Amino acid sequence: MNNKIFFTAILFILLTGTLSSAASRQAPITMHVPVSVVSEAVAKSLPVPVDINSTALVGSVFIQKIENLQFRKDTLSSRISIVGHDLHIVTSIGGHDLRMKIGALDMRFQCDATIRYHAPSQTLFLKPVITDLQASSQNKTDVASAIVLLFNNREFPIQIDRLKPIVTNTGSKFLSISMNIEEMRLQPDNLLLRIIPSIKTSKKAKIATTRQK
User: Fold this and answer.
1) Which domain covers residue 174, as residue numbers?
2) Could you tell me which of 34, 71, 78, 40 has the C-alpha nearest to residue 186?
3) Are residues 175 and 152 in the same domain?
4) Signal peptide: which range, if any (predicted)?
Protein backbone atom coordinates (compact mmCIF):
# COMPACT_ATOMS: atom_id res chain seq x y z
CA MET A 1 0.00 0.00 0.00
CA ASN A 2 1.19 3.51 -0.78
CA ASN A 3 2.61 5.05 2.44
CA LYS A 4 0.79 8.35 1.89
CA ILE A 5 -2.58 6.60 1.55
CA PHE A 6 -1.83 4.45 4.60
CA PHE A 7 -0.99 7.37 6.90
CA THR A 8 -3.95 9.39 5.58
CA ALA A 9 -6.26 6.49 6.44
CA ILE A 10 -4.78 6.18 9.95
CA LEU A 11 -5.17 9.94 10.54
CA PHE A 12 -8.80 9.80 9.40
CA ILE A 13 -9.57 6.86 11.72
CA LEU A 14 -7.97 8.63 14.69
CA LEU A 15 -9.83 11.88 13.97
CA THR A 16 -13.24 10.28 13.54
CA GLY A 17 -12.63 8.06 16.54
CA THR A 18 -11.85 11.09 18.68
CA LEU A 19 -14.95 12.92 17.48
CA SER A 20 -17.11 9.84 18.02
CA SER A 21 -15.87 9.57 21.58
CA ALA A 22 -16.50 13.28 22.18
CA ALA A 23 -20.00 13.01 20.75
CA SER A 24 -20.95 10.02 22.90
CA ARG A 25 -19.86 11.89 26.05
CA GLN A 26 -21.32 15.14 24.70
CA ALA A 27 -17.97 16.75 25.39
CA PRO A 28 -17.63 20.03 23.50
CA ILE A 29 -14.83 21.08 21.21
CA THR A 30 -13.48 24.42 22.47
CA MET A 31 -12.27 27.14 20.11
CA HIS A 32 -10.78 30.54 20.92
CA VAL A 33 -11.15 33.00 18.04
CA PRO A 34 -8.84 36.03 18.39
CA VAL A 35 -10.45 39.47 18.26
CA SER A 36 -8.21 40.30 15.28
CA VAL A 37 -9.81 37.49 13.26
CA VAL A 38 -13.33 38.62 14.21
CA SER A 39 -12.44 42.23 13.39
CA GLU A 40 -11.15 41.26 9.94
CA ALA A 41 -14.27 39.20 9.20
CA VAL A 42 -16.53 42.07 10.29
CA ALA A 43 -14.62 44.59 8.17
CA LYS A 44 -14.99 42.40 5.07
CA SER A 45 -18.76 42.13 5.60
CA LEU A 46 -19.33 45.90 5.65
CA PRO A 47 -21.23 47.97 4.72
CA VAL A 48 -24.46 46.40 5.98
CA PRO A 49 -27.94 47.98 5.94
CA VAL A 50 -29.71 48.93 9.15
CA ASP A 51 -33.47 48.48 9.42
CA ILE A 52 -34.51 51.76 11.05
CA ASN A 53 -38.11 50.52 11.44
CA SER A 54 -39.56 53.95 12.17
CA THR A 55 -42.54 55.92 10.88
CA ALA A 56 -40.90 59.21 11.89
CA LEU A 57 -37.73 58.67 9.88
CA VAL A 58 -37.43 57.16 6.41
CA GLY A 59 -34.45 56.55 4.16
CA SER A 60 -31.47 54.22 3.87
CA VAL A 61 -28.99 53.74 6.70
CA PHE A 62 -25.81 51.64 6.57
CA ILE A 63 -23.09 50.66 9.03
CA GLN A 64 -20.00 51.82 7.17
CA LYS A 65 -17.15 51.05 9.57
CA ILE A 66 -16.56 49.19 12.84
CA GLU A 67 -13.17 50.19 14.20
CA ASN A 68 -11.08 49.52 17.29
CA LEU A 69 -13.04 46.38 18.17
CA GLN A 70 -12.15 45.16 21.65
CA PHE A 71 -13.35 42.21 23.71
CA ARG A 72 -13.65 42.07 27.47
CA LYS A 73 -15.46 39.59 29.68
CA ASP A 74 -19.02 39.37 28.30
CA THR A 75 -18.75 42.80 26.64
CA LEU A 76 -17.38 44.36 23.49
CA SER A 77 -16.59 47.92 22.46
CA SER A 78 -15.95 49.61 19.13
CA ARG A 79 -16.12 52.88 17.24
CA ILE A 80 -18.92 52.76 14.65
CA SER A 81 -19.50 54.94 11.59
CA ILE A 82 -22.96 55.11 10.03
CA VAL A 83 -24.07 56.80 6.82
CA GLY A 84 -27.59 57.71 5.76
CA HIS A 85 -28.95 58.46 2.30
CA ASP A 86 -32.15 60.19 1.18
CA LEU A 87 -33.31 60.71 4.76
CA HIS A 88 -36.61 62.40 5.58
CA ILE A 89 -38.29 63.28 8.87
CA VAL A 90 -42.02 62.55 8.74
CA THR A 91 -44.49 64.60 10.78
CA SER A 92 -48.28 64.43 10.81
CA ILE A 93 -50.34 67.64 10.75
CA GLY A 94 -54.12 67.50 10.47
CA GLY A 95 -54.01 63.89 9.36
CA HIS A 96 -51.52 64.62 6.59
CA ASP A 97 -47.92 63.39 6.56
CA LEU A 98 -45.32 66.02 5.85
CA ARG A 99 -41.75 65.10 4.90
CA MET A 100 -38.78 67.29 5.68
CA LYS A 101 -35.77 66.37 3.59
CA ILE A 102 -32.53 65.80 5.48
CA GLY A 103 -30.54 64.21 2.67
CA ALA A 104 -27.25 62.52 3.52
CA LEU A 105 -25.89 61.99 7.01
CA ASP A 106 -22.53 60.85 8.34
CA MET A 107 -22.32 59.99 12.04
CA ARG A 108 -19.92 58.25 14.43
CA PHE A 109 -20.31 57.00 17.99
CA GLN A 110 -18.81 54.79 20.65
CA CYS A 111 -20.62 51.49 21.16
CA ASP A 112 -20.31 49.29 24.25
CA ALA A 113 -22.42 46.14 24.13
CA THR A 114 -23.20 43.05 26.14
CA ILE A 115 -24.02 39.72 24.51
CA ARG A 116 -25.83 36.55 25.47
CA TYR A 117 -26.23 33.37 23.48
CA HIS A 118 -29.31 31.12 23.31
CA ALA A 119 -28.08 27.69 22.22
CA PRO A 120 -31.42 25.96 21.39
CA SER A 121 -32.27 28.60 18.77
CA GLN A 122 -28.63 29.30 17.83
CA THR A 123 -29.29 33.01 18.40
CA LEU A 124 -26.90 35.68 19.64
CA PHE A 125 -28.48 38.65 21.44
CA LEU A 126 -26.62 41.97 21.31
CA LYS A 127 -27.49 44.94 23.54
CA PRO A 128 -25.61 48.14 22.61
CA VAL A 129 -25.16 51.29 24.69
CA ILE A 130 -24.14 54.33 22.63
CA THR A 131 -22.11 57.34 23.75
CA ASP A 132 -20.01 60.15 22.25
CA LEU A 133 -22.25 60.80 19.25
CA GLN A 134 -20.76 62.95 16.49
CA ALA A 135 -22.63 64.05 13.36
CA SER A 136 -21.24 65.40 10.09
CA SER A 137 -22.88 68.79 10.70
CA GLN A 138 -24.41 70.53 13.70
CA ASN A 139 -27.85 70.93 12.12
CA LYS A 140 -28.13 67.15 11.67
CA THR A 141 -27.36 66.22 15.26
CA ASP A 142 -31.07 65.81 16.08
CA VAL A 143 -31.49 63.35 13.21
CA ALA A 144 -28.41 61.43 14.33
CA SER A 145 -29.82 61.28 17.86
CA ALA A 146 -33.13 59.96 16.50
CA ILE A 147 -31.30 57.16 14.68
CA VAL A 148 -29.34 56.27 17.81
CA LEU A 149 -32.55 56.03 19.86
CA LEU A 150 -33.81 53.32 17.52
CA PHE A 151 -31.32 50.80 18.85
CA ASN A 152 -29.66 52.30 21.93
CA ASN A 153 -29.94 50.03 24.99
CA ARG A 154 -32.19 47.58 23.12
CA GLU A 155 -31.53 43.89 22.63
CA PHE A 156 -31.21 42.67 19.05
CA PRO A 157 -31.30 39.01 17.97
CA ILE A 158 -28.70 37.81 15.48
CA GLN A 159 -29.43 34.40 13.99
CA ILE A 160 -26.27 32.31 13.76
CA ASP A 161 -26.12 30.07 10.70
CA ARG A 162 -25.78 26.45 11.70
CA LEU A 163 -22.47 24.89 10.75
CA LYS A 164 -22.78 22.76 7.65
CA PRO A 165 -22.20 19.05 8.31
CA ILE A 166 -19.04 17.40 7.02
CA VAL A 167 -19.92 14.40 4.84
CA THR A 168 -17.24 11.81 4.10
CA ASN A 169 -17.37 8.73 1.90
CA THR A 170 -15.85 5.82 3.84
CA GLY A 171 -16.40 3.24 1.11
CA SER A 172 -19.47 1.31 2.19
CA LYS A 173 -21.05 4.16 4.18
CA PHE A 174 -21.42 7.91 4.34
CA LEU A 175 -20.15 9.53 7.54
CA SER A 176 -21.84 12.82 8.50
CA ILE A 177 -20.37 15.01 11.24
CA SER A 178 -22.75 17.77 12.40
CA MET A 179 -21.70 20.50 14.80
CA ASN A 180 -23.87 22.79 16.92
CA ILE A 181 -22.60 25.79 18.84
CA GLU A 182 -23.36 25.11 22.50
CA GLU A 183 -21.80 28.26 23.94
CA MET A 184 -20.58 31.60 22.64
CA ARG A 185 -18.92 33.94 25.10
CA LEU A 186 -16.65 36.97 25.03
CA GLN A 187 -13.34 36.85 26.86
CA PRO A 188 -10.48 39.35 26.92
CA ASP A 189 -9.14 39.50 23.35
CA ASN A 190 -10.99 36.41 22.07
CA LEU A 191 -14.35 34.83 21.35
CA LEU A 192 -14.96 31.49 23.05
CA LEU A 193 -16.93 28.87 21.11
CA ARG A 194 -17.95 25.48 22.45
CA ILE A 195 -19.13 23.13 19.72
CA ILE A 196 -20.92 19.80 20.18
CA PRO A 197 -20.15 17.23 17.44
CA SER A 198 -22.69 14.61 16.40
CA ILE A 199 -21.80 11.73 14.09
CA LYS A 200 -24.23 9.75 11.95
CA THR A 201 -23.63 7.03 9.40
CA SER A 202 -25.79 5.97 6.49
CA LYS A 203 -25.43 3.05 4.15
CA LYS A 204 -25.01 3.64 0.47
CA ALA A 205 -27.94 2.75 -1.72
CA LYS A 206 -27.29 -0.40 -3.70
CA ILE A 207 -27.50 -0.02 -7.44
CA ALA A 208 -29.45 -2.86 -8.99
CA THR A 209 -27.80 -4.48 -11.99
CA THR A 210 -29.34 -6.81 -14.54
CA ARG A 211 -27.56 -9.18 -16.81
CA GLN A 212 -28.43 -9.21 -20.42
CA LYS A 213 -29.01 -12.65 -21.88
Assistant:
1) 3-29+162-186+193-203
2) 71
3) no
4) 1-22
